[in-house]
Every structure is written in C-alpha cells, then in structure tokens.
Hints:
Layout: H1 2-10, H2 13-65, E1 81-86, E2 89-92, E3 95-99, H3 105-116, E4 122-125, E5 131-138, E6 143-150, H4 152-202, H5 217-265, H6 274-306, E7 313-315, H7 316-327, E8 335-340, E9 345-347, H8 350-367, E10 371-377, E11 380-385, H9 392-396, H10 413-423, E12 426-432, E13 437-443
Helix pairs in contact: 2-4, 4-5, 5-6, 6-10, 7-8, 8-10
Amino acid sequence: MKRFSIFIKRLSLSQQLFALIFFFVTFFxxxxxxxxxxxxxxxxxxxxxxxxxxxxxxxxxxLRLNMDYxxxxxxxxxxxxxxxxxxxxxxxLGEPNxxxxxxxxxxxxxxxxxxxxxxxxxxxxxxxxxxVYYSVxxxxxxxxxxxxTRSEDLKAFKDSLVSSVINITVMVVGFFFIILMIWVxxxxxxxxxxxxxxxxxxxxxxxxxxxxxxxxxxxxxxDALVSMRKELQKQEQTKEDMIHNISHDLKTPIATxxxxxxxxxxxxxxxxxxxxxxxxxxxxxxRLEKKVHSLLYLNRVEYLISQDAEGAITNMKDVxxxxxxxxxxxxxxxxxxxxxxxxxxxxxxxxxxxxxxxNILENALRYAKSQIVIHLHxxxxxxxxxxxxxxxxxxxxLFKPYExxxxxxxxxxxxxxxxxxxxxxxxxxxxxxxxxxxxxxVAKV
Length: 445
C-alpha cells in the first residue's frame, strides 16, 4: 500500500486524472457486465413471473365463470402462450382445434414439474438451451391452465435496457472526463506560474508579478508567496541597513582606540594626560564590547530555544526578581511596582525566559517616564510602563527582527522575546493603554 501511495504521488496531475478515469471505467465495466447483468436477469425474471401469474389468474377466473371463454380469447396481442387441458386432451387457448401431443417435450416437462412443485411458477430449459418461464393453475377437477413465455421474447427487452444504461453511463463518464480535464488544466496552469515564480526567486532573479485571478486555496497560496517575497525583501533591506549602521558604529570606536593607542605609543597624549587618554580607550572598548555582545546575544538565544525543553518548568516570579536585581540600578529614578503571585509556572527553561524578561524590562526602562508595573498571574505576565504610546503601524511590526524603534539599539530585543515566547507555546503582544504601553505574555488558547 505504501509503495502504491508513493507511485501515485510521483504522477503528474494529468497522469493522476487518466489513472482515475481508467479505474473509473474499469470499475463500471466490471459492474455492468458482471454484477448488473446478473441483476437485470433477476429483475426481468421476477417481473416475468409476476406478469405471467397475474395474466394467468385473470384468465383462470374468467374460465371458472365460463369455460367457453377460451373460444373468444385474443392471442394476437399476448406474449404469453396458454394451454388448457381437459381430461386427456390439451389445446392452445383460443385455438381449440389445435391439440397438443402429450409427447411434446415442453408440455411433458410442464406437467411433470407442475405436479411435483404443487403448481408453483417454474423455469424449464429445453434440449435446445432455450429457457421457458411457465406456471400451472387448476381450473376445476377436470381442467388445468398452463401459461408460459420463452426467454427469447425477453432478450430484446434486456438488450435494449442494458444498452440504454451503458450508453447513458458512457455519456456521463465522457462529460465528467471533459469537466475534469478542464478543471485539471485550470489547476496546472497557475501551479506552473507559481513554480516559475519560485524558481526565479530562488536564483535571485526579479520575477514578474504573479497574477493569478483565483479566490480559492491556489489564489491564497499565490498571494502568500508574493507577500512573503515582499516581506523577505523588506527584512533583507533592513538587515543590510543594520549591518551598515553596525559597521559604522564599530568603525568609530575601533578607529579611536587605534589612534589613541598609536599616539600613546609615540609618547603623545591626545586627551591632555595619560590617564584621560587611557580612559577614552577604555570607554570606547566598553562601547565596542556592548555592540558585539548584542550580536552574540541573538545567536545565544537561538541556541537556547533550539534545545529540547520538553517538560521543563520555570518559576516566573524567581526569574523576574533576579532580573530586577540586575537592571533596576540602570535607572534608579524609575519606580518599579510588582503585583506577582507565588509559584506561577511557565513552560520552558529558565535562561531563555530570563533573557526574554530582561529585554522587555530594558525596553520599558528606555521609554518609562517614572513608573513600571509588573503583573504576574496564572499563565500571564504583563509589564506596563508610563512612556509614550506606540504608533498603530509600529504595533504590527514590534516583534519583527531588525525593526528598530525610536531610541532602540539594533532592533533585536523584542524579536528575541518573540522567539522565546513562540518556542515555549505562548504568545506575546503589545498594546497602548491610557497611561502608556503594556506588553503581555499569555498561554496560547
């Protein structure tokens, strides 16, 4: 079964369509010529016996009322042959002068089987392989009515019925085949457009606009690809700008350190005294260290959240208290208010969560005017500051990498937060409040 599934998946849509049509036609051919053909025989035989018995009973009732009825019976419009026996004589109904020889093969068989089966409807196959449907009913103590019809009389009806069904089926299958061909063609063309579009993007070419005027899943896929390409272009441009800015920022302290070092080596103090000149070198080295540390920070977070954290649990209150000890000295003028429940457990390892909380609090300290409020309750963490509101457009891109806000450093802090939160199956969002801005981390619903 697995090999068959793999084989099917390797076929193109057109090949899958032809395979489906072949299977469909084969199935219905077997259905018609094996199953339906036998069922038609059963239905026709059942209908034949029903009509035979009904007609025979009508004739028998009239004969019981008047035995002379057989003289006036019209045989021209009937496919059923009727035989009357009176004592040792037997003749066709409507033809009293045409007697039947008792040695007649069919007549003898009907008499024999009718007696054995207590006059139930029967079939008889003659020596010439012709099938006969017959029924026998007693008129009185001396007379019997035998009615029969031959299978050759029903063959034309059966052939006509089967032929009609087959013709209708062929027409329906042909119609659906054409519809399926049109449908598959309508799928293949836009899929080829999408494939060509992806191939051009993959090799770095600028593809033409992907114009697929559909509102189904294929249209949605095409729109998503175009949107993804635009987003990648935007991120690539932002990343290039960031690298350019970082390069420029790194170049300045490196150049300062180099020039001051060379000057001191030559016995010249660029900043009045040796101590002041060395302080400038140390200050620029620290500045350089912070910039490099920020870049390494992102790689460390990527590593941490890639580790298997299944089943790991973190006490979020302990994490927040550790972070507060380290960062509240950065701006002692900011009041930090906490409203935290004990033993609030979050899924995931402690270190990534610590980095996440640090980044949110550092961001809050950067913009807060006088106060930061931290709320920690069951499966929810909210960090609010009374800084300026964030523009609505900016709220949509807060957690995208390399998106740097006003006063930001490299545009990576909130992106790291988003990565940690998503990796541990939570969600994070920012929103404006009447007093400032709040960032919330909640469990996914």
